[in-house]
Amino acid sequence: MIELKTNEEIERMRVAGNIVARTLDLIGEEIRPGITTEELDEIAERYIRSQGAEPAFLGYHGYPKSICVSIDDEVVHGIPSKERKIRKGQIVSVDVGSFIDGFNGDSARTYAIGEIDSEARKLLEVTKTALEKGISKALNGNRLGDISSAIQKTAEEAGFSVVKDLVGHGIGRKMHEDPQVPNYGVAGHGVLLKTGMVIAIEPMVNAGGFEVRTKPDNWTVVTADGSRSAHFEHTVAITDNGPRIMSL
Ligand code: MF3
Ligand code: CO
C-alpha cells in the first residue's frame, strides 16, 4: 500500500532530508586520499546525531554501520572499514540515511577522488543527469514508468547500463515503503503518481554490463564484470507544484 503524506508530514520529511544533504556536503569536504571509509562513517554518524537525528541504516536488517561507502566496481552497500583507504583516481559512492521526528531521509552521491579518467567522469555525469531526468517526471498524474524509462534511456543512450536487481522505493515512516521504483521501465506504464507520494529515486549505473553480485560479506554489491558503477539518490515528494527534492 502506498502511504500518501500530508503537507505537514512532508515538512517533517524535509528536516530528515536536509540532515542527509548536509551530511553528504560534509563528506564531500572530508573525503580525500588516505582517509578510511570507517573515518567517513564516524564523521557522518557524529554529524547526524549532533542534529538530533539517528543514522537510519545502523542496525537496519543488521547493517553494522551508519553509511554505505562503495568504491569503483562496488555498486551499493559497501561497509565502512578501518582497513579500507580511499585512493586518488577512485569514484566513491556514499549513501546516507537519517531518522528524525518519525520520518526518514535517504540520499546518495558519488564523489571523484582527485583526477579521474574520462570514462569515470562521464559515468558520474550521466548518472547525475539520469537522476535529474527521473525527478523531472515525478509529477502528479504521471506514471512510475515515466520516471523509470527516463533514467534507463539516459544511461543506455550514453552506452552504460542500469542495475536491475536493486530499485528505488517509497519512503516515509519506514525507510523502504511501496512502491518500488525501478531504474528501467516503460513510459506511460505502472503506478499512477499522486500528490503526497514520497519516493527515493536512485539510479545505479554501470559502465559495463547490468549484472551484479553480492560479496561474501552479504552486503557489498559489485558489478559482475568488474566495471565501475555510480549512484546518485534523492528523496523526492510529488506535490501540486511539481517534484520537491527533500534531500537538498
Ligand atoms: N539507501 C539504501 C537503500 O535505499 C539503504 C541502505 S541499506 C542499509 O536501499 F541496510 F544499509 F540500510
Ligand atoms: Co534508498
> What is the C-level CATH assignment?
Alpha Beta
Average pLDDT taken over every residue? 98
Low-confidence stretches: none
* Global geometry: globular
Please identify, by name, the CATH architecture: Alpha-Beta Complex
**Number of DSSP helical runs:** 4
Strand order of the largest sheet: 8-7-9-14-15
Q: What ligands are attached or bound here?
A: 2-amino-4-trifluoromethylsulfanyl-butyric acid, cobalt (II) ion
CATH superfamily: Creatinase/methionine aminopeptidase superfamily
Tell me roughly what share of residues is in helical segments.
25-40%
Tally of strands: 15
Q: How many domain modules?
A: 1
**Structural class of the secondary structure composition?**
alpha+beta
- Main beta sheet, described? 5 strands, antiparallel
Strand content: 25-35%
What Rg do the Cα atoms give? Answer: 17 Å
Q: What's the order of the H and E elements? A: HHEEEEEHHEEEEEEEEEE
Explain this structure to me?
By secondary structure, this protein is of the alpha+beta class. The chain has one domain: Creatine Amidinohydrolase, CATH 3.90.230.10. It contains four helices and 15 strands. Strands 8-7-9-14-15 form a five-stranded antiparallel β-sheet. Strand 11 and strand 12 form a beta hairpin. Helix 1 packs antiparallel against helix 2. The model has no long low-confidence stretch (mean pLDDT 98). The site of 2-amino-4-trifluoromethylsulfanyl-butyric acid (MF3) has 11 residues, from strand 4.
